[in-house]
Write a structure and sequence with these properties.
Chain lengths: 385, 232
Protein backbone atom coordinates (compact mmCIF):
# COMPACT_ATOMS: atom_id res chain seq x y z
CA UNK A 1 0.00 0.00 0.00
CA UNK A 2 1.49 3.27 -1.15
CA UNK A 3 0.34 5.20 1.93
CA UNK A 4 2.12 2.97 4.45
CA UNK A 5 5.22 5.16 4.41
CA UNK A 6 3.13 8.18 5.35
CA UNK A 7 1.42 6.32 8.20
CA UNK A 8 4.71 4.96 9.47
CA UNK A 9 6.33 8.40 9.40
CA UNK A 10 3.46 9.78 11.44
CA UNK A 11 3.81 7.04 14.04
CA UNK A 12 7.50 7.85 14.37
CA UNK A 13 6.76 11.56 14.72
CA UNK A 14 7.07 11.75 18.48
CA UNK A 15 8.89 8.64 19.49
CA UNK A 16 8.67 9.25 23.22
CA UNK A 17 4.97 9.99 23.14
CA UNK A 18 4.28 7.03 20.88
CA UNK A 19 6.26 4.70 23.15
CA UNK A 20 4.58 5.95 26.31
CA UNK A 21 1.16 5.65 24.74
CA UNK A 22 1.96 2.15 23.54
CA UNK A 23 3.21 1.28 27.00
CA UNK A 24 0.05 2.50 28.70
CA UNK A 25 -2.16 0.66 26.22
CA UNK A 26 -0.05 -2.41 26.90
CA UNK A 27 -0.44 -2.05 30.66
CA UNK A 28 -4.16 -1.42 30.33
CA UNK A 29 -4.78 -4.59 28.38
CA UNK A 30 -2.43 -6.65 30.51
CA UNK A 31 -4.54 -5.49 33.44
CA UNK A 32 -7.69 -6.31 31.54
CA UNK A 33 -6.49 -9.86 30.89
CA UNK A 34 -5.55 -10.48 34.52
CA UNK A 35 -8.81 -8.89 35.62
CA UNK A 36 -10.77 -11.36 33.51
CA UNK A 37 -8.73 -14.27 34.84
CA UNK A 38 -9.36 -13.19 38.43
CA UNK A 39 -13.05 -12.74 37.76
CA UNK A 40 -13.14 -16.16 36.18
CA UNK A 41 -11.32 -17.62 39.17
CA UNK A 42 -14.03 -16.31 41.48
CA UNK A 43 -16.92 -17.54 39.41
CA UNK A 44 -15.57 -20.72 37.80
CA UNK A 45 -16.92 -22.92 40.59
CA UNK A 46 -20.43 -21.62 40.11
CA UNK A 47 -20.66 -21.93 36.37
CA UNK A 48 -19.03 -25.34 36.38
CA UNK A 49 -21.10 -26.71 39.25
CA UNK A 50 -22.90 -29.86 38.24
CA UNK A 51 -26.54 -29.09 37.60
CA UNK A 52 -27.45 -32.60 38.70
CA UNK A 53 -25.62 -32.41 42.03
CA UNK A 54 -26.84 -31.40 45.44
CA UNK A 55 -24.76 -30.55 48.46
CA UNK A 56 -26.31 -31.76 51.71
CA UNK A 57 -24.92 -30.25 54.89
CA UNK A 58 -25.91 -29.67 58.49
CA UNK A 59 -28.76 -27.20 58.68
CA UNK A 60 -26.90 -24.96 61.14
CA UNK A 61 -23.50 -24.77 59.52
CA UNK A 62 -21.11 -26.41 57.14
CA UNK A 63 -18.63 -27.15 59.91
CA UNK A 64 -21.12 -29.26 61.85
CA UNK A 65 -21.07 -32.97 61.07
CA UNK A 66 -23.63 -35.44 59.77
CA UNK A 67 -23.77 -39.20 60.47
CA UNK A 68 -22.41 -41.51 57.80
CA UNK A 69 -25.63 -43.51 58.04
CA UNK A 70 -27.50 -40.72 56.22
CA UNK A 71 -25.94 -41.84 52.92
CA UNK A 72 -27.94 -45.04 52.43
CA UNK A 73 -31.08 -43.32 53.74
CA UNK A 74 -30.75 -40.56 51.16
CA UNK A 75 -30.21 -43.06 48.37
CA UNK A 76 -33.61 -44.55 49.20
CA UNK A 77 -35.32 -41.21 48.49
CA UNK A 78 -36.85 -41.22 44.98
CA UNK A 79 -34.80 -39.10 42.56
CA UNK A 80 -31.51 -39.56 44.43
CA UNK A 81 -29.04 -41.65 42.45
CA UNK A 82 -26.16 -41.61 44.90
CA UNK A 83 -25.04 -39.81 48.06
CA UNK A 84 -21.32 -39.55 48.66
CA UNK A 85 -19.91 -38.44 52.04
CA UNK A 86 -17.09 -35.87 52.28
CA UNK A 87 -14.94 -35.10 55.31
CA UNK A 88 -12.93 -31.90 55.41
CA UNK A 89 -9.52 -32.95 56.69
CA UNK A 90 -7.66 -29.65 56.59
CA UNK A 91 -4.33 -31.39 56.13
CA UNK A 92 -1.22 -29.40 56.91
CA UNK A 93 2.01 -30.19 55.14
CA UNK A 94 5.31 -29.72 56.98
CA UNK A 95 3.53 -27.75 59.73
CA UNK A 96 3.47 -24.80 57.38
CA UNK A 97 0.02 -23.15 57.07
CA UNK A 98 0.99 -21.42 53.84
CA UNK A 99 1.36 -24.85 52.26
CA UNK A 100 -2.42 -25.09 52.49
CA UNK A 101 -4.39 -27.12 49.97
CA UNK A 102 -7.79 -28.76 50.14
CA UNK A 103 -7.76 -32.32 51.54
CA UNK A 104 -10.92 -34.38 51.76
CA UNK A 105 -11.75 -37.95 52.69
CA UNK A 106 -14.18 -39.71 50.33
CA UNK A 107 -15.15 -43.26 49.35
CA UNK A 108 -13.11 -43.68 46.11
CA UNK A 109 -15.47 -45.32 43.64
CA UNK A 110 -18.64 -43.33 44.48
CA UNK A 111 -16.61 -40.12 44.53
CA UNK A 112 -15.12 -40.71 41.06
CA UNK A 113 -18.56 -41.56 39.80
CA UNK A 114 -20.02 -38.37 41.24
CA UNK A 115 -17.23 -36.01 40.15
CA UNK A 116 -16.64 -37.20 36.63
CA UNK A 117 -14.76 -33.99 35.80
CA UNK A 118 -11.89 -35.42 37.85
CA UNK A 119 -10.29 -37.57 35.20
CA UNK A 120 -8.18 -40.44 36.56
CA UNK A 121 -6.58 -43.19 34.42
CA UNK A 122 -8.12 -46.61 35.01
CA UNK A 123 -4.97 -48.24 36.46
CA UNK A 124 -4.58 -45.40 38.96
CA UNK A 125 -8.21 -45.80 39.94
CA UNK A 126 -7.57 -49.51 40.59
CA UNK A 127 -4.49 -48.65 42.63
CA UNK A 128 -6.59 -46.29 44.74
CA UNK A 129 -9.23 -48.98 45.30
CA UNK A 130 -6.48 -51.39 46.38
CA UNK A 131 -4.50 -49.08 48.63
CA UNK A 132 -6.02 -48.10 51.96
CA UNK A 133 -3.52 -45.26 52.46
CA UNK A 134 -3.83 -44.20 48.83
CA UNK A 135 -4.59 -40.64 47.86
CA UNK A 136 -5.17 -38.94 44.52
CA UNK A 137 -3.95 -35.42 43.89
CA UNK A 138 -4.90 -32.87 41.28
CA UNK A 139 -2.51 -31.89 38.49
CA UNK A 140 -2.08 -28.34 39.85
CA UNK A 141 -1.22 -29.66 43.30
CA UNK A 142 1.21 -32.22 41.89
CA UNK A 143 3.01 -29.49 40.00
CA UNK A 144 2.99 -27.16 42.97
CA UNK A 145 4.91 -29.56 45.21
CA UNK A 146 6.52 -31.64 42.44
CA UNK A 147 4.79 -34.75 43.78
CA UNK A 148 4.77 -37.97 41.79
CA UNK A 149 2.95 -41.26 42.01
CA UNK A 150 4.63 -43.35 44.68
CA UNK A 151 5.49 -40.40 46.90
CA UNK A 152 4.56 -40.69 50.56
CA UNK A 153 3.10 -37.52 52.03
CA UNK A 154 2.78 -36.93 55.75
CA UNK A 155 0.02 -34.54 56.80
CA UNK A 156 -1.25 -33.42 60.17
CA UNK A 157 -4.81 -32.33 60.77
CA UNK A 158 -5.95 -29.91 63.46
CA UNK A 159 -9.45 -31.40 63.12
CA UNK A 160 -8.75 -35.13 62.98
CA UNK A 161 -5.77 -36.28 65.04
CA UNK A 162 -4.46 -39.76 64.47
CA UNK A 163 -5.15 -42.45 67.14
CA UNK A 164 -1.44 -43.16 67.29
CA UNK A 165 -0.57 -39.50 67.44
CA UNK A 166 1.77 -37.96 64.90
CA UNK A 167 1.18 -37.42 61.22
CA UNK A 168 -1.08 -39.29 58.81
CA UNK A 169 0.77 -40.91 55.95
CA UNK A 170 -0.64 -40.93 52.46
CA UNK A 171 0.63 -42.70 49.36
CA UNK A 172 0.11 -40.89 46.09
CA UNK A 173 -1.50 -43.47 43.79
CA UNK A 174 -3.00 -41.19 41.18
CA UNK A 175 -2.91 -37.75 39.64
CA UNK A 176 -6.18 -36.50 38.18
CA UNK A 177 -6.73 -33.90 35.49
CA UNK A 178 -9.70 -31.62 34.99
CA UNK A 179 -12.15 -32.52 32.25
CA UNK A 180 -12.31 -28.81 31.42
CA UNK A 181 -10.20 -25.71 32.06
CA UNK A 182 -12.26 -24.57 35.02
CA UNK A 183 -12.01 -27.81 36.98
CA UNK A 184 -10.26 -27.37 40.29
CA UNK A 185 -7.24 -29.66 40.40
CA UNK A 186 -5.55 -28.05 43.37
CA UNK A 187 -6.75 -30.51 45.99
CA UNK A 188 -6.21 -34.02 47.33
CA UNK A 189 -8.69 -36.82 48.02
CA UNK A 190 -8.01 -39.85 50.17
CA UNK A 191 -10.04 -42.78 51.44
CA UNK A 192 -12.82 -42.31 53.99
CA UNK A 193 -12.31 -45.79 55.48
CA UNK A 194 -8.64 -44.98 56.20
CA UNK A 195 -9.69 -41.79 58.02
CA UNK A 196 -12.51 -43.42 59.89
CA UNK A 197 -10.40 -46.25 61.26
CA UNK A 198 -7.46 -44.06 62.11
CA UNK A 199 -9.06 -41.02 63.71
CA UNK A 200 -8.95 -40.65 67.49
CA UNK A 201 -12.63 -39.69 67.73
CA UNK A 202 -15.59 -38.79 65.55
CA UNK A 203 -16.08 -42.25 64.07
CA UNK A 204 -19.01 -42.31 61.64
CA UNK A 205 -19.18 -38.55 61.21
CA UNK A 206 -18.90 -36.84 57.84
CA UNK A 207 -18.81 -33.18 56.83
CA UNK A 208 -21.34 -33.11 54.02
CA UNK A 209 -22.76 -35.17 51.21
CA UNK A 210 -22.61 -34.74 47.51
CA UNK A 211 -25.71 -36.26 45.96
CA UNK A 212 -26.57 -36.91 42.35
CA UNK A 213 -30.18 -36.54 41.28
CA UNK A 214 -31.66 -38.41 38.34
CA UNK A 215 -33.39 -35.34 36.88
CA UNK A 216 -31.81 -31.87 37.23
CA UNK A 217 -35.25 -30.31 36.71
CA UNK A 218 -36.38 -31.98 39.91
CA UNK A 219 -33.28 -30.97 41.92
CA UNK A 220 -35.16 -28.45 44.08
CA UNK A 221 -37.94 -30.92 44.86
CA UNK A 222 -35.47 -33.66 45.73
CA UNK A 223 -33.56 -31.25 47.99
CA UNK A 224 -36.82 -30.55 49.82
CA UNK A 225 -37.52 -34.26 50.18
CA UNK A 226 -34.07 -34.84 51.67
CA UNK A 227 -34.50 -32.06 54.23
CA UNK A 228 -37.96 -33.42 55.08
CA UNK A 229 -36.50 -36.90 55.61
CA UNK A 230 -34.17 -35.63 58.33
CA UNK A 231 -36.39 -32.96 59.85
CA UNK A 232 -36.77 -33.17 63.64
CA UNK A 233 -33.70 -35.43 63.93
CA UNK A 234 -30.61 -34.46 65.94
CA UNK A 235 -28.92 -33.76 62.60
CA UNK A 236 -31.22 -31.67 60.45
CA UNK A 237 -29.96 -31.06 56.93
CA UNK A 238 -29.89 -28.33 54.36
CA UNK A 239 -29.74 -29.63 50.78
CA UNK A 240 -29.13 -27.23 47.92
CA UNK A 241 -27.93 -27.33 44.33
CA UNK A 242 -24.15 -27.28 44.11
CA UNK A 243 -24.14 -23.95 42.25
CA UNK A 244 -26.01 -22.25 45.07
CA UNK A 245 -23.68 -23.86 47.60
CA UNK A 246 -20.55 -22.64 45.82
CA UNK A 247 -22.09 -19.23 45.43
CA UNK A 248 -22.83 -19.04 49.15
CA UNK A 249 -19.25 -20.01 49.87
CA UNK A 250 -17.95 -17.42 47.40
CA UNK A 251 -20.09 -14.74 48.98
CA UNK A 252 -17.87 -14.92 52.03
CA UNK A 253 -14.93 -13.75 49.94
CA UNK A 254 -17.23 -11.86 47.58
CA UNK A 255 -16.46 -8.46 49.02
CA UNK A 256 -12.78 -8.85 48.32
CA UNK A 257 -13.64 -9.79 44.77
CA UNK A 258 -15.90 -6.77 44.33
CA UNK A 259 -13.33 -4.34 45.66
CA UNK A 260 -10.55 -5.89 43.60
CA UNK A 261 -12.56 -5.85 40.42
CA UNK A 262 -13.76 -2.30 41.02
CA UNK A 263 -10.25 -0.97 41.54
CA UNK A 264 -8.78 -2.80 38.58
CA UNK A 265 -11.64 -1.74 36.31
CA UNK A 266 -11.23 1.88 37.35
CA UNK A 267 -7.51 1.73 36.64
CA UNK A 268 -8.12 0.03 33.31
CA UNK A 269 -10.59 2.60 32.08
CA UNK A 270 -8.52 5.51 33.36
CA UNK A 271 -5.46 4.31 31.46
CA UNK A 272 -7.62 3.73 28.41
CA UNK A 273 -9.07 7.23 28.53
CA UNK A 274 -5.67 8.84 28.99
CA UNK A 275 -4.15 6.81 26.14
CA UNK A 276 -7.16 7.51 23.92
CA UNK A 277 -6.96 11.20 24.66
CA UNK A 278 -3.25 11.30 23.89
CA UNK A 279 -3.87 9.58 20.58
CA UNK A 280 -6.71 11.94 19.79
CA UNK A 281 -4.53 14.90 20.73
CA UNK A 282 -1.86 13.69 18.31
CA UNK A 283 -4.42 13.86 15.52
CA UNK A 284 -5.82 17.23 16.59
CA UNK A 285 -2.34 18.73 16.47
CA UNK A 286 -2.20 17.84 12.82
CA UNK A 287 -5.36 19.62 11.70
CA UNK A 288 -3.30 21.99 9.59
CA UNK A 289 -1.38 19.14 7.97
CA UNK A 290 -4.63 17.39 7.17
CA UNK A 291 -5.72 20.68 5.59
CA UNK A 292 -2.61 20.68 3.40
CA UNK A 293 -3.29 17.12 2.29
CA UNK A 294 -6.86 18.10 1.49
CA UNK A 295 -5.58 21.02 -0.58
CA UNK A 296 -3.33 18.59 -2.46
CA UNK A 297 -6.44 16.61 -3.37
CA UNK A 298 -6.65 13.92 -0.66
CA UNK A 299 -10.31 13.02 -0.22
CA UNK A 300 -11.93 13.13 3.22
CA UNK A 301 -12.49 9.39 3.19
CA UNK A 302 -8.85 8.68 2.42
CA UNK A 303 -7.62 10.99 5.18
CA UNK A 304 -10.03 9.42 7.63
CA UNK A 305 -8.77 5.97 6.67
CA UNK A 306 -5.14 7.05 7.09
CA UNK A 307 -5.81 8.44 10.57
CA UNK A 308 -7.81 5.35 11.56
CA UNK A 309 -5.12 2.96 10.40
CA UNK A 310 -2.61 4.94 12.42
CA UNK A 311 -4.58 4.90 15.67
CA UNK A 312 -5.62 1.32 14.94
CA UNK A 313 -1.98 0.26 14.66
CA UNK A 314 -1.20 1.92 18.00
CA UNK A 315 -4.12 0.25 19.73
CA UNK A 316 -3.42 -3.10 18.11
CA UNK A 317 0.30 -3.18 18.92
CA UNK A 318 -0.14 -2.12 22.55
CA UNK A 319 -3.38 -3.97 23.12
CA UNK A 320 -2.43 -7.28 21.53
CA UNK A 321 0.90 -7.29 23.37
CA UNK A 322 -0.94 -6.67 26.65
CA UNK A 323 -3.50 -9.39 26.04
CA UNK A 324 -0.76 -11.74 24.83
CA UNK A 325 1.34 -11.29 27.95
CA UNK A 326 -1.76 -11.67 30.15
CA UNK A 327 -2.51 -14.89 28.33
CA UNK A 328 1.06 -16.14 28.83
CA UNK A 329 0.94 -15.33 32.53
CA UNK A 330 -2.38 -17.06 33.06
CA UNK A 331 -1.35 -20.02 30.93
CA UNK A 332 1.36 -20.72 33.46
CA UNK A 333 -1.27 -21.31 36.09
CA UNK A 334 -2.36 -19.54 39.22
CA UNK A 335 0.23 -17.46 41.08
CA UNK A 336 -1.72 -18.21 44.28
CA UNK A 337 -3.11 -21.74 43.86
CA UNK A 338 -4.22 -21.91 47.47
CA UNK A 339 -6.47 -18.87 47.05
CA UNK A 340 -7.44 -19.05 43.40
CA UNK A 341 -7.13 -22.65 42.29
CA UNK A 342 -8.77 -22.00 38.93
CA UNK A 343 -6.93 -19.31 37.00
CA UNK A 344 -7.05 -18.90 33.26
CA UNK A 345 -8.07 -16.39 30.61
CA UNK A 346 -11.33 -17.52 29.00
CA UNK A 347 -11.57 -17.23 25.22
CA UNK A 348 -14.67 -15.09 25.66
CA UNK A 349 -12.65 -12.51 27.63
CA UNK A 350 -9.92 -12.54 24.97
CA UNK A 351 -12.56 -11.74 22.36
CA UNK A 352 -13.98 -8.94 24.48
CA UNK A 353 -10.42 -7.64 24.88
CA UNK A 354 -9.93 -7.68 21.11
CA UNK A 355 -13.19 -5.78 20.75
CA UNK A 356 -11.96 -3.15 23.20
CA UNK A 357 -8.65 -2.85 21.32
CA UNK A 358 -10.61 -2.24 18.14
CA UNK A 359 -12.92 0.24 19.85
CA UNK A 360 -9.98 2.16 21.30
CA UNK A 361 -8.28 2.48 17.93
CA UNK A 362 -11.50 3.53 16.29
CA UNK A 363 -12.71 6.01 18.91
CA UNK A 364 -9.31 7.65 19.39
CA UNK A 365 -8.94 8.15 15.64
CA UNK A 366 -12.42 8.81 14.35
CA UNK A 367 -13.48 11.68 16.58
CA UNK A 368 -10.58 14.06 15.97
CA UNK A 369 -10.34 12.96 12.34
CA UNK A 370 -14.00 13.77 11.73
CA UNK A 371 -13.51 17.08 13.48
CA UNK A 372 -10.60 17.86 11.20
CA UNK A 373 -12.58 16.72 8.16
CA UNK A 374 -15.48 19.02 8.96
CA UNK A 375 -13.19 22.01 9.17
CA UNK A 376 -13.05 23.66 5.72
CA UNK A 377 -9.59 23.45 4.14
CA UNK A 378 -9.31 27.21 4.01
CA UNK A 379 -9.82 27.40 7.77
CA UNK A 380 -7.53 24.48 8.54
CA UNK A 381 -4.77 26.23 6.63
CA UNK A 382 -5.41 29.45 8.52
CA UNK A 383 -4.89 27.89 11.92
CA UNK A 384 -1.22 28.73 12.32
CA UNK A 385 -1.67 32.45 11.67
CA UNK B 1 -4.84 21.06 -21.37
CA UNK B 2 -2.25 23.84 -21.53
CA UNK B 3 -2.49 24.53 -25.23
CA UNK B 4 -4.36 27.47 -26.70
CA UNK B 5 -4.47 31.01 -25.48
CA UNK B 6 -8.03 31.20 -24.19
CA UNK B 7 -9.17 32.26 -20.77
CA UNK B 8 -8.12 29.72 -18.15
CA UNK B 9 -9.77 31.23 -15.09
CA UNK B 10 -13.05 33.09 -15.24
CA UNK B 11 -14.50 34.53 -12.02
CA UNK B 12 -17.92 36.12 -12.57
CA UNK B 13 -19.98 38.23 -10.22
CA UNK B 14 -18.56 36.47 -7.19
CA UNK B 15 -19.68 37.34 -3.68
CA UNK B 16 -18.11 35.81 -0.63
CA UNK B 17 -19.65 36.54 2.71
CA UNK B 18 -18.43 35.34 6.09
CA UNK B 19 -20.34 35.41 9.30
CA UNK B 20 -18.62 36.26 12.50
CA UNK B 21 -21.37 35.59 14.98
CA UNK B 22 -24.25 37.84 13.91
CA UNK B 23 -21.94 40.16 12.01
CA UNK B 24 -21.87 39.76 8.23
CA UNK B 25 -18.55 40.39 6.50
CA UNK B 26 -18.72 40.90 2.72
CA UNK B 27 -15.14 40.12 1.83
CA UNK B 28 -15.69 39.94 -1.92
CA UNK B 29 -18.63 41.48 -3.75
CA UNK B 30 -19.50 41.59 -7.43
CA UNK B 31 -16.02 40.48 -8.33
CA UNK B 32 -14.92 39.74 -11.92
CA UNK B 33 -11.58 38.36 -13.01
CA UNK B 34 -10.28 36.67 -16.12
CA UNK B 35 -6.88 35.07 -16.28
CA UNK B 36 -5.62 33.97 -19.71
CA UNK B 37 -3.54 30.86 -20.10
CA UNK B 38 0.13 31.45 -19.64
CA UNK B 39 -0.27 34.58 -17.52
CA UNK B 40 1.75 35.31 -14.39
CA UNK B 41 -0.70 37.42 -12.43
CA UNK B 42 0.20 39.26 -9.24
CA UNK B 43 -2.66 39.94 -6.84
CA UNK B 44 -1.97 42.78 -4.43
CA UNK B 45 -3.92 44.56 -1.78
CA UNK B 46 -3.87 45.49 1.89
CA UNK B 47 -3.97 42.87 4.55
CA UNK B 48 -7.48 41.56 5.12
CA UNK B 49 -8.69 42.68 1.70
CA UNK B 50 -9.64 39.13 0.70
CA UNK B 51 -6.67 38.02 -1.43
CA UNK B 52 -6.41 34.63 0.20
CA UNK B 53 -10.16 34.24 0.03
CA UNK B 54 -10.11 34.85 -3.73
CA UNK B 55 -7.19 32.48 -4.24
CA UNK B 56 -9.03 29.77 -2.28
CA UNK B 57 -12.09 30.22 -4.48
CA UNK B 58 -10.03 29.81 -7.65
CA UNK B 59 -8.22 26.79 -6.21
CA UNK B 60 -11.40 25.02 -5.18
CA UNK B 61 -10.63 25.22 -1.46
CA UNK B 62 -13.69 27.37 -0.82
CA UNK B 63 -16.97 28.18 -2.56
CA UNK B 64 -18.45 31.57 -3.42
CA UNK B 65 -21.61 32.69 -1.64
CA UNK B 66 -22.89 33.52 -5.12
CA UNK B 67 -21.44 33.88 -8.61
CA UNK B 68 -19.42 31.43 -10.66
CA UNK B 69 -15.83 30.23 -10.80
CA UNK B 70 -14.80 28.54 -14.01
CA UNK B 71 -11.39 26.98 -14.58
CA UNK B 72 -10.47 25.45 -17.94
CA UNK B 73 -14.14 25.41 -18.87
CA UNK B 74 -15.33 23.68 -15.70
CA UNK B 75 -17.63 25.22 -13.10
CA UNK B 76 -15.70 24.27 -10.01
CA UNK B 77 -18.15 26.02 -7.68
CA UNK B 78 -20.74 23.42 -8.61
CA UNK B 79 -18.62 20.32 -8.10
CA UNK B 80 -19.21 17.90 -5.25
CA UNK B 81 -16.52 17.84 -2.56
CA UNK B 82 -15.32 14.52 -3.82
CA UNK B 83 -14.96 15.67 -7.42
CA UNK B 84 -13.42 18.92 -6.29
CA UNK B 85 -10.70 17.02 -4.40
CA UNK B 86 -9.89 15.01 -7.51
CA UNK B 87 -9.98 18.19 -9.57
CA UNK B 88 -7.50 19.92 -7.24
CA UNK B 89 -5.16 16.96 -7.44
CA UNK B 90 -5.16 17.15 -11.23
CA UNK B 91 -5.26 20.83 -11.99
CA UNK B 92 -3.90 22.97 -9.15
CA UNK B 93 -0.56 23.34 -7.43
CA UNK B 94 -0.62 25.34 -4.18
CA UNK B 95 2.37 27.20 -2.82
CA UNK B 96 1.95 28.55 0.72
CA UNK B 97 3.60 31.36 2.61
CA UNK B 98 4.73 29.03 5.38
CA UNK B 99 5.57 26.18 2.97
CA UNK B 100 3.29 23.75 4.82
CA UNK B 101 5.54 20.76 4.33
CA UNK B 102 4.86 17.68 6.43
CA UNK B 103 7.62 17.72 9.06
CA UNK B 104 7.74 13.92 9.30
CA UNK B 105 8.61 13.45 5.65
CA UNK B 106 11.87 14.16 3.81
CA UNK B 107 11.85 16.71 0.99
CA UNK B 108 11.45 14.05 -1.68
CA UNK B 109 8.64 12.33 0.23
CA UNK B 110 6.86 15.66 0.56
CA UNK B 111 7.19 16.21 -3.17
CA UNK B 112 5.89 12.69 -3.78
CA UNK B 113 2.67 13.27 -1.80
CA UNK B 114 0.43 14.46 -4.67
CA UNK B 115 1.66 11.57 -6.81
CA UNK B 116 0.31 9.08 -4.27
CA UNK B 117 -3.12 10.00 -5.60
CA UNK B 118 -2.19 9.04 -9.17
CA UNK B 119 -1.82 5.62 -10.74
CA UNK B 120 1.91 6.03 -11.23
CA UNK B 121 4.16 3.17 -10.17
CA UNK B 122 6.83 3.63 -7.56
CA UNK B 123 9.62 4.04 -10.09
CA UNK B 124 7.55 6.47 -12.18
CA UNK B 125 6.84 8.48 -9.05
CA UNK B 126 10.54 8.59 -8.25
CA UNK B 127 11.31 9.86 -11.74
CA UNK B 128 8.73 12.64 -11.48
CA UNK B 129 10.02 13.62 -8.03
CA UNK B 130 13.59 13.78 -9.32
CA UNK B 131 12.54 15.94 -12.23
CA UNK B 132 10.63 18.37 -9.99
CA UNK B 133 13.50 18.61 -7.51
CA UNK B 134 15.86 19.20 -10.42
CA UNK B 135 13.70 22.04 -11.75
CA UNK B 136 13.80 23.80 -8.37
CA UNK B 137 17.52 23.02 -7.95
CA UNK B 138 17.21 20.91 -4.83
CA UNK B 139 18.46 17.53 -6.00
CA UNK B 140 21.25 17.36 -3.42
CA UNK B 141 18.89 18.06 -0.52
CA UNK B 142 16.22 15.53 -1.39
CA UNK B 143 16.80 13.32 1.66
CA UNK B 144 16.62 16.15 4.20
CA UNK B 145 13.74 16.76 6.58
CA UNK B 146 12.10 20.20 6.41
CA UNK B 147 13.51 21.36 9.76
CA UNK B 148 17.06 20.93 8.44
CA UNK B 149 16.34 23.05 5.36
CA UNK B 150 16.54 26.85 5.11
CA UNK B 151 13.38 28.83 4.42
CA UNK B 152 14.30 29.22 0.77
CA UNK B 153 14.99 25.51 0.42
CA UNK B 154 11.69 24.66 2.11
CA UNK B 155 9.83 26.91 -0.29
CA UNK B 156 11.60 25.32 -3.22
CA UNK B 157 10.46 21.97 -1.90
CA UNK B 158 6.95 23.44 -1.72
CA UNK B 159 7.21 24.53 -5.34
CA UNK B 160 8.49 21.13 -6.40
CA UNK B 161 5.48 19.57 -4.66
CA UNK B 162 3.18 21.99 -6.49
CA UNK B 163 4.59 21.26 -9.95
CA UNK B 164 5.25 17.52 -9.65
CA UNK B 165 1.85 16.60 -11.09
CA UNK B 166 2.28 19.12 -13.92
CA UNK B 167 -0.87 21.07 -12.93
CA UNK B 168 -2.73 23.54 -15.12
CA UNK B 169 -2.53 26.33 -12.59
CA UNK B 170 -0.13 27.40 -9.85
CA UNK B 171 -1.58 29.37 -6.94
CA UNK B 172 0.89 31.06 -4.61
CA UNK B 173 -0.15 32.83 -1.41
CA UNK B 174 2.64 35.24 -0.46
CA UNK B 175 5.34 32.72 -1.44
CA UNK B 176 8.16 35.09 -0.44
CA UNK B 177 6.40 36.57 2.60
CA UNK B 178 8.51 34.60 5.05
CA UNK B 179 11.83 34.82 3.22
CA UNK B 180 14.74 37.26 3.18
CA UNK B 181 15.27 39.34 0.04
CA UNK B 182 17.87 37.04 -1.51
CA UNK B 183 15.94 33.79 -1.05
CA UNK B 184 12.78 35.60 -2.07
CA UNK B 185 14.39 36.72 -5.30
CA UNK B 186 15.48 33.17 -6.05
CA UNK B 187 11.94 31.91 -5.54
CA UNK B 188 10.54 34.66 -7.76
CA UNK B 189 13.09 33.83 -10.44
CA UNK B 190 12.00 30.21 -10.22
CA UNK B 191 8.33 31.11 -10.60
CA UNK B 192 9.18 33.35 -13.53
CA UNK B 193 11.07 30.52 -15.20
CA UNK B 194 8.16 28.15 -14.63
CA UNK B 195 5.90 30.68 -16.31
CA UNK B 196 8.22 31.50 -19.21
CA UNK B 197 9.89 28.21 -19.93
CA UNK B 198 7.24 25.73 -18.84
CA UNK B 199 4.21 27.80 -19.76
CA UNK B 200 2.64 27.60 -16.31
CA UNK B 201 -0.24 29.91 -15.52
CA UNK B 202 0.49 31.45 -12.12
CA UNK B 203 -1.59 33.55 -9.75
CA UNK B 204 0.49 34.97 -6.94
CA UNK B 205 -0.77 36.90 -3.95
CA UNK B 206 1.83 39.31 -2.63
CA UNK B 207 2.37 42.42 -0.53
CA UNK B 208 5.65 43.13 -2.11
CA UNK B 209 5.93 45.51 -5.11
CA UNK B 210 9.31 43.93 -5.79
CA UNK B 211 7.56 40.59 -6.27
CA UNK B 212 4.75 41.93 -8.41
CA UNK B 213 7.33 43.46 -10.74
CA UNK B 214 8.19 39.92 -11.86
CA UNK B 215 4.63 39.22 -12.94
CA UNK B 216 3.18 39.83 -16.38
CA UNK B 217 0.20 41.68 -14.89
CA UNK B 218 -0.78 43.04 -11.50
CA UNK B 219 -4.29 43.58 -10.13
CA UNK B 220 -5.24 45.26 -6.86
CA UNK B 221 -7.90 44.12 -4.48
CA UNK B 222 -9.43 46.66 -2.13
CA UNK B 223 -12.71 46.82 -0.28
CA UNK B 224 -13.95 43.74 -2.09
CA UNK B 225 -13.21 45.05 -5.60
CA UNK B 226 -10.49 44.51 -8.17
CA UNK B 227 -8.81 47.19 -10.22
CA UNK B 228 -5.86 47.37 -12.55
CA UNK B 229 -4.65 50.50 -10.81
CA UNK B 230 -3.12 50.78 -7.39
CA UNK B 231 -5.77 52.52 -5.26
CA UNK B 232 -5.02 56.15 -4.20
N1 LIG C 1 -13.55 31.51 7.36
C1 LIG C 1 -13.64 32.81 7.70
N2 LIG C 1 -14.56 33.19 8.63
C2 LIG C 1 -14.69 34.48 8.96
N3 LIG C 1 -13.96 35.46 8.45
C3 LIG C 1 -13.03 35.16 7.53
C4 LIG C 1 -12.82 33.81 7.11
N4 LIG C 1 -11.84 33.79 6.19
C5 LIG C 1 -11.46 35.09 6.03
N5 LIG C 1 -12.17 35.89 6.83
C6 LIG C 1 -12.06 37.35 6.89
O1 LIG C 1 -12.10 37.83 5.57
C7 LIG C 1 -11.22 38.91 5.42
C8 LIG C 1 -10.27 38.64 4.30
O2 LIG C 1 -9.37 37.65 4.67
P1 LIG C 1 -8.20 37.17 3.72
O3 LIG C 1 -8.78 36.69 2.43
O4 LIG C 1 -7.38 36.22 4.46
O5 LIG C 1 -7.38 38.50 3.47
P2 LIG C 1 -5.91 38.70 2.91
O6 LIG C 1 -5.43 37.40 2.44
O7 LIG C 1 -6.09 39.69 1.82
O8 LIG C 1 -5.10 39.24 4.02
C9 LIG C 1 -10.56 39.12 6.77
O9 LIG C 1 -11.24 40.12 7.47
C10 LIG C 1 -10.73 37.80 7.46
O10 LIG C 1 -10.79 37.96 8.85
MG1 LIG D 1 -3.79 36.23 3.07
Amino acid sequence: MRFLGLIWSNLKRRKLRTSLTLLSIFVAFLLFGLLCAIKEAFTAGITLAGVDRLIVRHKVSLIMDLPVTYGPRMERIPGVVSAVPFVWFNGIYQNEPKNFFATMAVPPAPFLDLYRECVLPEDQKQAWLNTRTGAIIGRTLAERFKWKIGDRIPLTSPIWPNKEGGAWEFDVVGIFDGANKGTDTSGMYFRYDYLDEGRAYGEGLVGWYGARVSDPEQAAAVAKAIDAEFANSPYETKAEPEGAFVQGFIQQIGNIKTILLAILSAVFFTILLVAGNTMAQAVRERTEELGVLKALGFRDGLLLALVLVESGVMAAVGGLAGLGVAWLITARGSPVPAMLPVFYLPTRSLLIGLGLVFALGFAAGVLPALQAMRLPVALALRRHV
Amino acid sequence: MSTGNGVLVRVEDVHRTFWRGAEQIDVLSNLHLEVPRGEFLALMGPSGSGKTTLLNLIGGLDRPTSGSVEVAGERIDRMSNRRLAAWRARHVGFIFQFYNLLPVLTAERNVELPLLLTHLSKSERRRHVETALHVVGLTDRSGHFPRTLSGGEQQRTGIARAIVTDPTLLLCDEPTGDLDRKSGDEILGLLQALNREHGKTIIMVTHDPHASARATRTVYLDKGRLSAEKPE
